[in-house]
Write a structure and sequence with these properties.
This protein is mostly beta strands and 214 residues long. The protein has 2 domains: 1-106, Immunoglobulin-like; 114-213, Sandwich (Immunoglobulin-like), CATH 2.60.40. Helix content is 7%, strand content 48%. Strands 3, 4, 6, 7 and 8 form a 5-stranded antiparallel beta sheet that branches. Strands 13, 14, 16, 17 and 18 form a 5-stranded antiparallel beta sheet that branches. A 3-stranded antiparallel beta sheet has the order 1-2-5, with no helix packed on it. The chain is elongated. Keywords: Disulfide bond, Receptor, Repeat, Secreted, Signal. This is Interleukin-22 receptor subunit alpha-2. Receptor for IL22. Binds to IL22, prevents interaction with the functional IL-22R complex and blocks the activity of IL22 (in vitro). May play an important role as an IL22 antagonist in the regulation of inflammatory responses.
Amino acid sequence: ILENQDLQDSIKPQKVEFRSLNFNSTLHWQPGRAREARDTVYFVQFKVYGQSMWQNKDDCWGIRNHVCDLTNETSDVQEPYYGRVKAVSAGIYSNWSLSCRFTPWRETVIGPPKVTVVHSNKSIILKLQAPHSPFKRKRGSKIPMTNYYDLLYQVFIINNFLDEQHKVLVYEGKDKVIKIEDLRPGASYCVMAKMYVPVLDRSSAYSSRQCTVL
């Protein structure tokens, strides 16, 4: 029995955690401290905080991966959730390993906007597009993240291709088309943007840079 107990402990999954980008939410874990046997499989359950019943995630029942997609199961983004994982190896079942509480609205990472340079002469005109969630409207289009948060676009300009340290904030607001004026003809400029979430005081990563010569 002690040997079994040791084996149970040694295969128990470690570091069970949710990771989430734009509400695409996955549960991740690491194998137990025993070197992972080839026949180790994992079982995943989830529940809303406060519910007594755990629910099986059928697609992640007896899997070899260390990740399970729970995007659809966590679609009520204001609710707090838990996930848990157990391992089975050589007929021995570990105990469950529990994640921390996860509230998608609070904890998802918001991705950068998409930036398109539409025109440049003495000015640069940009089109900005907020990222989308994985959730769909009845018509089938994906719901943008702006439906869930009051988001601001932050647009930065870099005066030449090299000097990424000197980004200048040239716009903050909600407009999806913006014009950056009074630029030097013949000069090269790069533009990057972020999403800013005032209510959480958090910013996304920068978008990829769009460069243009006037």
